[in-house]
Amino acid sequence: MLSRNLLVFLLLLFTFNEFPSLASAENTTFDFPYFTFWNFTLLGDSHLKNGVVGLTRELGVPSSSSGSLIYNNPIQFFDQESNITASFSTRFSFAINNVNPSSFGEGLTFFLSPDNQTIGSPEGYLGLVNSSDVDKNKFVAIEFDTKLSTQFNDPDENHVGLDINTLHSIKTADAMLQDIDFKSGNLITAWIDYKNDFRVLNVFLSYSTLKPQTPLLSVDIDLSVYLKQDMYVGFSASTDGSTEIHSIENWSFRTFGFLPVRPGSHPHNVSDSSVTIISDVPASNSTNKHHKRLGLGLGIAGPAFFFVVLVVFGYVSVKKWKDMKIEKCLKAEISTGPREFSYKELYAATRGFHSTRIIGRGAFGNVYKAFFVSSGTVGAVKRSKHSHEGKSEFLAELSIIAGLRHKNLVQLQGWCAEKGELLLVYEFMPNGSLDKEEEMRKLLLVGLSCAHPDSAERPSIRRVLQILNNEAELIAVPRMKPTLTFSCSLKVEDIVSDDEDSRTTA
């Protein structure tokens, strides 16, 4: 059996290694609704707090600050084999706040650059280039400027501009043309689109998440000249003796336009909408051999793949059936407690879990203010980050929380476990804190686990400290208090007599 499996593996390996690859390059896509340390590099004064990246710090006047956020992996924008330059599109939300409105500047940028190590200077350099060698760093950047710098011929103190290898903008546009004030402190969403086939770059801005029909800035330009190598993408910002704070809340990015090309074919300036035409040339013997090898490989791999899929499907089905059975029992136990909400209802009540509805952030997720139109009530929805937790564990924990009643605890109103997410609905308290509620809940569950009748089930002191410091998951607490059972059997030979005829046990 082992030798047969080895033979199948070698045949597949030989077949697919011999078959030529048709794709010359891959497009890149990523989407981050919030930020972590895993995928990004923070330079200078940039910092991460509650999933939001601050590019500059709040420093006293006249101190200045600069920092940058860079995606760790370089992005391929040009494929040398096919001579194709990729198009790209990005969307991000940012806010510029100022503790002292009388002092402002300088602004932030979205950039593409082959350099991921330069810590840019503050003031008018926007954290993008070093003032000691402004020509060293090559880049393509969109600037969102909040100060008029005569050094770089800025038109005003509230504009968008396209910068290439220099901070003297190729073209600018006044953001007030679309009633956008960068220094308002409001959350602003930006869209930047470059289509290589049309050789045009467009920038859109809005206070909402709906993309406008008309771009604020449109530049006719061929960026393929500047995108001849892998580039890093990210953001930079700086202040100029002000208390301006630049924050990035979310970010999505994608490249597109790399098309499959025939081996040995190198079209010149193939655009996103081009179609590769294959002539009616008879296939060579070499091609026929490749096709035969591919057919042999698929013929062998097909039944094996079907068998594996069948086994996986059976395993998943059985596991899902068991989980549904457990879930049904647990739901029955809490049927008289909090209400089960639908995901659709909570999604509508929080406007799609919009960032403007966030009223708190904790170690276990964000808390959103929810308006329930049907009942005219207001609630607080906690959206757990630990969505990988199983429904059965979640419902078991919920059955404990549902039974809690205390004047200092926020009352649990309902719950939802759909679409891979776990959500709890609490009563809304304008001056309350669900973070404190979460801490009290955590302390209660830790206390219950430490009081387990079986000492082997009690957590160690180290584990307790890790849980309290949010470094470890909560211990699953049984829904019913466990009871210990003892078995004892004594034999006559286990009972002996001492010299004074007193009975003892061995």
Automatic annotation (TrEMBL):
Localization, UniProt? Membrane
An example Pfam family from this entry, by short name, is Lectin_legB
According to the UniProt entry, its GO molecular function terms are:
ATP binding; carbohydrate binding; protein tyrosine kinase activity
List residues of the Protein kinase domain: 353-506
Record-given protein name: Protein kinase domain-containing protein
Q: Would the keyword Transport turn up in this protein's UniProt record?
A: no
Q: Which UniProt keywords apply?
A: ATP-binding, Lectin, Membrane, Nucleotide-binding, Receptor, Signal, Transmembrane, Transmembrane helix
Classification via PROSITE patterns: PROTEIN_KINASE_DOM
Note the topology in the membrane. Answer: Single-pass type I membrane protein
Q: Which organism is it from?
A: Corchorus olitorius
Q: Which family does it belong to?
A: In the N-terminal section; belongs to the leguminous lectin family.
Coiled-coil intervals, chain numbering: none
